[in-house]
Amino acid sequence: YGYQELRPPMVEYVDLFIHGVGATTDIVTKEMFNITPRGDDPDARRMAMRPEFTAGLVRAWLENGLYNNPQPTKIFAYGPAFRYENVQKGRFRGFHQLDVEVFGAQDPAVDAEVIKLGLDVVARLGLTGLVVSVNSIGCPQCRPRYRQALQDHFRPHLGELCEDCNTRFEKNPLRLLDCKRDADHPAQRTAPVTLDYLCDDCRRHWEGLLSHLAAMGIPYQIDTRIVRGLDYYTKTVFEVLHPKLGAQSALWGGGRYDGLIEIVGGKPTPGVGFGMGMERVLMVLEEEGLTAPFADRPRLDVFVATLGEAARPVGLKLLYALRDAGLSADIDYLGRSLKAQMKYAGKQNSRYVVILGEDEVRQGEASVKHMDEGTQARVPLDQIIEHLRRAEA
C-alpha cells in the first residue's frame, strides 16, 4: 500500500487533544490520563498520555515539515495508548493500536482504500464474517442545518435524557446519537439522519465512496447512527464490526477529518484514517481458534554450541563473524552441557547449530547441523559462513 511508519511520542500536550479531539468528547472530559507539571511554574503546560494517535501524528507531520514531501502522505503507527475506561471485555485502560492515516487527498477512493487496508490486515490473520458500517456526517457547510434539526428533535425530550446528553445538546448535538445510556430511547430511533442534510459536495463524496466499495467487492451496510466519538470527523465515518465482540463489537473504526490539520496549526488539508485496537483483534482470534502469525517465534539462523575451554574463545569469535555477515546468531552463556545446548537451540527455533569442541578447534573445523533436515557436516572454520549461505541458496 506504500505507507511509511511514523513514531509519535506517548506523551503530548493536553491542548492538542482539547483542540483536536474536542473539548466535550468523553476522551477529553473523562478518559485522559493527565500529567500534573512539577513545581509552581504557572506557565507549565499540562501533558497527557496519548488516548489516540491521529492528533499526535498530525502535530508531528506539521512540526517536521512532512507536508513539503510529495503528497499525499501515507503513514502508519503502532503502539500503546491509554484511556481511563471502565474495564470490560474488549476495553482496557492500556491498549495497543494500529493507526493508519492519509494526509492530502480528498478523493473518496482513499477512504475506500483505508477501509480495504484494514480488512486486508485482519484477512491475513484469518478473520472473516466482518461487517463494514459506513455513514457520512457532512461538513461545516451542511452540518449546521443538521445540527439545528437534531436540536429541534431532541429539545422536547431533554428532561428524559441523561446529563451527558443535556451537555451535548448545546455543545455538539451530533454526539447525542453516540450516547450508550439512552441508545434505546424512542427519540433516538426517530432522530433525523445526516444523509438527508448533505450538501452537493458531501453527497458526491458519499456516492463516490459507496461506488468504490462496491467496485472493490467490499460488502457494507449504511448505519446513520455512526458519528464516532471524536469531534474532528467530517464526511466519511465507518466502523468494522465482529458479532462475537458483543457490546464492544467494533474491531476498529475511523473516518475523514478534513479540518483537523488546520485546527492543529497547518494549512487546510484533507485527511482520512483509522485506529485498530489490537487487543480486540487478538480476542476475536482466540474465540475463532486462530493463531496470529506475529505470535510465532522468530527463527534464529545459527546457534554456536561450544564444549571445553579451548572452544569458547573460538566460538565467540565465530559468533561475531556470523553477526557481521548479517546472520542472526547466539551462543550459550550459562555453561550448559552439549545436550542441553542442543535442546536450547531447538527451543530458539534455530536453523543451524555450529558445534565446536576441543577436537574440532585443533583441526580448524566445526560440525554444522541442519536442524530441520537432521543432517550434519564437518566444515573448515573459515568456510562456515559460505557453507551456510550455499545451504540457504
Automatic annotation (TrEMBL):
Residues 1-293 form the Aminoacyl-transfer RNA synthetases class-II family profile domain. Keywords: Aminoacyl-tRNA synthetase, ATP-binding, Cytoplasm, Ligase, Nucleotide-binding, Protein biosynthesis. GO terms for molecular function: ATP binding; catalytic activity, acting on a protein; histidine-tRNA ligase activity; transferase activity. It catalyses: tRNA(His) + L-histidine + ATP = L-histidyl-tRNA(His) + AMP + diphosphate + H(+). Gene3D superfamilies: Anticodon-binding domain, Bira Bifunctional Protein, Domain 2. The lineage of its organism: Bacteria, Bacillati, Bacillota, Clostridia, Eubacteriales. Pfam families: HGTP_anticodon, tRNA-synt_His. It comes from the Bacteria. The keyword ATP-binding applies. One of its GO terms (cellular component) is cytoplasm. L-histidine binds at residues 52-54, 83, 97, 101, 228, 232-233. Its EC number is 6.1.1.21. GO terms for biological process: histidyl-tRNA aminoacylation. This is Histidine--tRNA ligase. Belongs to the class-II aminoacyl-tRNA synthetase family.
